[in-house]
Records
---
Amino acid sequence: MASIVRVVQIDEATYRDRDGEVERSQPYVVETTGPVTDLQIRRSGLIPRYRDPHPQGDSIVSEVEIGERRGYVRATSGIYDVTVRYTSDEASVPEEEDPTSRPTVTSMRSEKVRVRTVLDADGQPMLNTAGDLIEEEVDETHYVFHARRNFAALPRWIEDYADAVNIDDVRIRGFTWRAGHVRMEGISLPGELVWENGVPYIPFEWTARYRPRRPWNEPLLNRGFHELDAQLLEDAFTSGQDPADFRVLKPITIGDPEELITEPAWLDENGVAFRDAEGRVRVPRPEEIILLPRKRHLELPFRVLPW
């Protein structure tokens, strides 16, 4: 690891205004054995740190500015220009507060989104009087949360929570939002660390979206062009064998002569098309329709996140 070889102090510049306030600018040249970070230079103990007093006792450090690596003493070395600024106006220099200790700031806005759906406001399939499925475009109001917080390092949870949905109720902005309705969206962060009060941090931002009317993991309709062979399943039940060993697919047909269906048919809990007493494929009653729970988005606890 590169280390600091020496620090050369250059002539200090002092300014005094009409009110007697003192401003000082003290340049340094830092020689290293190779590239080093701002943090290594600031914490080396070889240059004054934030709010350190000036040797004359009339001012304190208000800022430590570190320039880019600008030159080489040897092929493996580096030179950095450092400027330490002092002020006698101590009230203008904040206490060394850790910016990562500040709470999350979360803003909120509503957004209209047009989506295609086959489910009504109660989460049930929309059917016409003949039992055909209706697909419509509807406007949904979503609430978008924009959260900002300072982190000392990139939080590890950002990978796991990409597009994840809350498995639990989560409290944001003093209100409890229902499980399954909040989905994590994008993140934003700068390319470099930010320094404040001598502390480096990452100003990290993320967004989440609340869908009030329906959950993000919507159920699937139990429909298809194939069904399980009902006769084989019945034979398995009758003989006491495991029906799982007799799950044989066959295409669903209608008419005489039989023809393949051109629209998916509704299936019952056994994966068999609904039929009437004469074996013809029929439209199920609304209470017979089966919705299959499906997890399109990973479900994770959101209450553990720093909202």
Note: The mean pLDDT is 86.
---
Amino acid sequence: MSSFALMKKVTCLIILFISFRASAQFQPGAELSFNSQKAGYGDTIGHVTTLDLRAWSPLWHQKHSLLSGNIIFINEHFSNFPALYGARARGLSAGLSWTKKISEKHSLIISGDIGLYSDFKNLDSRAIRQRAGLTWITKISYRFSLGYGVEYRNQFYGNQLIPAIVLMYMSKEEDRWKLSGLLPYHPKLTRQFSAHHAISAELKQSFSSYELTAAKDSGTYLRNQKLAFIFNYEYKFQQHWRVLAGIGYSLKQKYEVYSNADSHGWYIINSRIGGDKPTPIASVSQKGVQFVIGIAFNPKF
């Protein structure tokens, strides 16, 4: 299936997903972003372009409980990379999140998803990955909420545990500052200048892995790690829509290929618990400038 055909099907699925509950008390939303940056190995400079499309919607709601769903599609395209990497890696997942209000101050969030992460050349059950998370949120005051959580990810290189702090702070209306996101993986600071214009600064860290089914060895997979600081200009229009354009710097960007490596170890973030880390058979990495553009409908933050 071509990238365009797959993208068209995912877009139609997300439109139907959002429309299904468009009249619900809690509004659905969607985000689309496009990122471009360099990545090199030896004396060769390649490029990585990433398309990230995601949507969420309420599915069921009672007085103190909310069940919501999400769909995420990621396409990473590699240009001037070693042949072993192939041309692209893709992820397509669907998930559920249940929020339970325990009291006026405390809430519990349980979430999980399942998806395919592969080059989509020869799909099979080995391309399936799962994720599960648990978060406890406390409302400290009208403007400040704090939460603690842990996430489990079934990666191709092993079992990964990711602890996180959830933060949401809104200053007084006349100050127009907002701090939100996950610490230390994706905090975001926003300064609102008017109903339409804002600037934001965010730190984004991500971890992922994809099965390379086009490789002769069925045990071959791609692992990537990213850490970037991004500065955005955001423009809100028609009440629910937001567009952004950003420039950032990649503090870490690493794409590694492994073959028949141990996939049963345990990691806290990227640190392996016991044993030795496997050695990649190929690695591409590059620090440098990246560019981002995006559009969102009812953005989360």
Note: Confidence is low (pLDDT under 50) at residues 17-25.
